[in-house]
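Suppose you are handed a protein chain with no further information: no name, no annotation, nothing but its sequence. What can you learn? This example shows the usual starting point.
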Amino acid sequence: MKALSEEYPRFGYRRIAAKLREEGFPVGKRHVQRLRRQAGLRVPPSVRKQVRRGLSTGWPTKATYKNHVWTWDFIADATHRGGALRILTILNEYTRECHILRADRALKSKDVLEWLAKAISQHGAPQFLRSDNGPEFIAHEVQRWLSASQIKTLYIDPGSPWQNGFVESFHSRFRDECLNRETLWTLTEARVVIEDFRRFYNQRRPHSKLGYLSPVRFAANNPNKHNRSGL
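A reasonable first move is to predict its three-dimensional structure. Written in structure tokens, the prediction is:
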């Protein structure tokens, strides 16, 4: 019984009794339960993992004008020979413009800040930035940079991707219309193909939620009345 309890530490007395009977010992579960108690054997309590949470600095909000709310997230893929691809998406929730679609083998906090800064220098700064609780987005370095840039954070609940529906919808279209259709042999080729898709999506693809205008045309027809200076 002790040997089985050590071999199967997550087994309770019922399963230990069943294993003993498999080995030919005529024991009942209550007998095993009593012996385990006397021997001080018990199933160790489960340790609940701590869920990492980013600190939201603004209320969850729906974008009502250009540069009101941006969202950022990652999507994963691979080149043809198995090399990992991690793709950073930065999306304007109001105009649906994809400001950044950057592929790399790996992207860390400093990388996402670099690409966010490039998007801001070209399009102005958002008031809010929505994301999940990925380590690249909740890192102290990122929190400090966003605070210094006066950009409020909106972190969705862990395990709730539907709370970031705009980027989830974009990733669905991106995978269906690009990643699943193209054989990407190298990182360089992947970057060219993915950037071509980003330009097509922004400039030429009709968007059903924008009255079948492309995001760029919709943005041109809806100038930002709450524009903030670039950072």
